[in-house]
Amino acid sequence: MSEELVETTAESARRFDGVRLRLDIAYVGREFHGWQIQPELRTVQGELRHYLTRLLGRDAIPVAAGRTDAGVHARGQVAHLTVRDEREVERVERALDRMCAGDLEVSRVRRVSPDFNARFSATARRYSYHLIQTRDIFRPHVWHVYRELDRAAMEQAVGHFLGRHDFATFCKASSRKENNECDVSLCTFEWSGDSAIFHVKANRFLHHMVRNLVGLLVEIGCGEWQPEQVPALLAAQNRSDIGRMAPAHGLFLEEVDYPDCCLDPAWRDPRFTNAEPLPAKELP
Length: 284
Hints:
This protein is of the alpha+beta class. The chain has helices at residues 9-13, 44-56, 86-99, 151-158, 209-221, 230-236, and strands spanning 15-16, 19-27, 63-64, 73-83, 104-111, 124-132, 143-144, 163-166, 181-192, 195-202, 251-257, 277-278.
C-alpha cells in the first residue's frame, strides 16, 4: 500500500494553478492507526482531511513526507497541500491548528514553491527510538526493556549500518521494493542513566526498517547476536534471519530535510517549465 493516497512522481511534476502550502505536523501516535486514511479508523491524514474539508468547503487531502505506522509518533512530520487562492491560505493559517484534537498539532503553515512535494522533494529523514531499562508509568512513549544491555556491543553494531547498504533484511517482507538501498548518515545511541535514545538518519527508509534495526540492536545488547554478525545479516537480505521488531510506541519521526530552493515560493523547477497545468479538479 502506498504512503499516501496515490500521487505519482509524474503527477507531482505537472504544473497546477493555486498556492502550495507546507504543513509542519506533530502527533502522539497512540490513538492513531497510522498516517494514511483507512475506512472507519482514526488516522492522522484522515483527521486533517476532515478539518481541511470543513475549512475549505471541499475535499482536501494533505500528502505527507512518509507514512508512519499505527502507534508511531511524530515531532517533525511534513505534508503539502494545494489551496486555490489567498483566502484559503488565510483560513488554513488561522484556523487549522485550533481545530485539531489534543494529540495532533499543526505547528506551522507556510507557502512554498509550487514544485515542493513533501514526499518526493525530501532529501533525508531522521528518526529517534526511545528505550528504558526500568518501569516508569510516566514515560509511556518508550520501550521498557527489563534486561541488562551490553552498551559497548550495541555501539559497535551501529557502525555497520552507516553508509549505503541494501536494507532488505530490515524491511517488512511484503513491502520490499526492487531497490532497497538506503544511505545512512547518522546511526548512534545517546545514553543517559538507565535510558537510551537511538538516532538514525538516511535519505530514505523502508517499511518497519527503524523498528527492525532497534529490535536487532537490543538482541545484540542481550547477547543473542554479536556485532560482527551485522554485515552478514545485511548481505543475506532476508527478514526471517533477524528476530523481534521493536514496538511502535518508542518511535518518533523527528525531522525531514529539503533543499532550500523548493521552500522558496518564487522558485520553479526548470525541469517542469513547459509542463501543462493541472486542472483545478485534479489539484493534489
